[in-house]
Amino acid sequence: MATTEPEALSPDFHVGHHWDKADTQFDAGRMGIWIFLVTEILFFGGLFCAFFIFQSWYFDSFVEAHNQLDWRLGGLNTIVLITSSLTMALAVRAAQTNDRKRTIQMLAITIACAAAFLVIKYTEYHHKIEEGLLPGANFTAVGFHSANPKVFFSIYFMMTGIHGLHVVIGMGLIMWILLRAAKGEFSSRYYAPVEGVGLYWHLVDLVWIYLFPLLYLVG
Amino acid sequence: MSRAITAEDASKLPGYGGGQKKNYLNAEKGVVSWLTTVDHKRIGIMYLFSTITMFIIAGCLALTLRLELLHPAQQSHFLTAMQYNQVFTLHGAMMVFLFIIPGIPGGLFNFILPLMIGAKDVAFPKLNLMSLYLYWIGAAFTISAILTTGLDTGWTFYVPYSSTVSPTAVIAVTFGVFILGFSSILTGLNFIVTIHKLRAPGITFYRLPLVLWSTYATSLIQVLATPVLAITLLLLIFERAFHIGIFDPRLGGDPVLYQHFFWFYSHPAVYIMILPGMGIISDLIAVHCHRRIFGYKAIAFSSVAIAMVGFLVWGHHMFTSGQSRLAATIFSFITFIVAVPSGIKVFNWTSTMWGGSISFRTPMLYAMSFLFLFTIGGLTGLFLGMLGLDLHMQDTYFVVAHFHYVMVGGTVIAFVGGMHHWWPKITGRLYNEKIGSLACIIVFVGFNMTFFTQFFLGSRGMPRRYYTYLDQFQPLHAFSTYGALVLGFGLFLALGNLLASLRAGGERAPKNPWGGLTLEWEAESPPITENFKRTPVVTHGPYDFPSTGPAHH
Prior knowledge:
The structure holds two protein chains of two kinds. Chain A is an all-alpha fold. Chain A is built from six helices and no strands. In chain A, helix 1 packs parallel to helix 6 (192-217), helix 2 (59-66) crosses helix 5 (149-182) and helix 3 (71-96) runs antiparallel to helix 6. Residues 1-6 of chain A have low confidence and may be disordered.
């Protein structure tokens, strides 16, 4: 799809009617993304806060319950996501240097990594659900010695579930800029959407960097 | 009296002649043109229409409550206890989430913000429209509760009642509020970036009208606090649907954690509600006293200070719900600190009036009502911030009265005053000044009748949210109910007066009916779609009225 030549676009086709200069619009967009990322951190912040409170309350239970998680799969997923962050950064770089083919390649690899992450996550979830560790009507965890093992799994599923949702949304966004890149919309003059989605993707990655040690390793 | 210097200059520009002028209202026609618009003025109008509709519905629910409380005797009840719980819950939830939080930022500020900084639109016009759509979707979820099983948890959705006991539509409403939160975040994000990036040449931060400083402070809170509410409500929904045991004590969860999370948002949120009102009042007082505002920087930074300190006081909602004594003491102390920037504002507004040439027009009457009512609301807040007193006052009508003095006496009064002030700009029509002033006086009297009475009720031990009460409280309750009817009548009169100006022969408004110096008064009334023919250049402060100081007479 990278072979079709872009139709002639006016160099300022992306500048909104209310902006005097493309530069100001670019700055505003970047500022908007950063503020949005702050809201994301506060959103996850509530869950992290709950994690730490219950970890201090039910420390033994958290230690016992976290042994049910497979740190190898979690570690593999960490590597997958870090790789995807690298390819995302390379995609932004390629867009800035007018390398359309490479932009598309890198975005495609990023999407593939995100999909791999979800497949691995699905395997983990499937295993946990079969063991009756999904909080809810079917929570049948047996063999726990400490009280309230359910709380750990509730937090685990909430945190990783919401993070997984962000991964899915990220895949959609990356697909969207991949299609726009294929149309030749991005250049060294205009790459704001690539950078914006990139920043979002790095945040999704960063959240996982914290989730992995907290849930899988701390014990 | 009026010093419309800039407006006269601007009106000499070519293309501003009489006849049917093009403006943002008649530029395009049809419902679709409204629903797909990215014009901040049209979005603001749709926000105003939606939020005022919600205000009327929630206000009628309040009147229903007051009528139910007219008499405690068994035969005089026309609601069951369950229905009563549902009515007060929906009154609170709709007022807070569907009217007060989105009303002034989404409606009024959306309209005036780009005009005041000489911009053509907000930074992200499509996000602005998306915010309105999210508001509608969230409102639909909330209203669906009225039409189905109602909601009886109170607007705070406290667990474990909301998560395990309540038979009502908790999930629908909290999911609606979750969506409304996104709408609020998008508005706040948009305004912050707009104020940073779209100011016309010459508008430094210290030349911003004060209303925009408070818009900025409000937006900061919307962006920083709302995500925490989002995760809280999401956890609540999962708790209710799947019993995940985060908040339910039977499953190892902690209901006090819910209260911490909830008030970490909802206390800053009361500053989302009051800061816009404070901003409006700053502009109203300066313009209608024709005087440079006293202590510009003090008012500006006190808004930001309120926004910041407001994040550190949430614990004062939980003095009686199992908090350590040390934490309670600290929260009580920080609560007192909030009174400092609020007091700075009130003193500066009063000083501005001193020696000004005051025009007692309707907006100014509302501004003066605000000063009176907000001061009472703020000071009674200090009573409740005291640990010893709060043990007795917690969950009484004293709290109800305090809250309504700030939210109605403060925010709603400021909102109605602001609507009168900017009505000529929004619609291009002048309302009837006499009826407008009369309505303001009726609102002021009715409001005090309703809620001052409740300070007495509360301090004598009348608990809030009770369906019935001891006979000894009956006279005060009846007085409060009559006051509510007067208040309702006054508000309807104000609204009717504004709407009556839209009739075919309504009086046309000039560009600058009040002699204001900020940029919105240089635009046409109503403005053209692009706001200004060319980007204005500003060479003076927002309140540099020619003659200032007490020697003016």
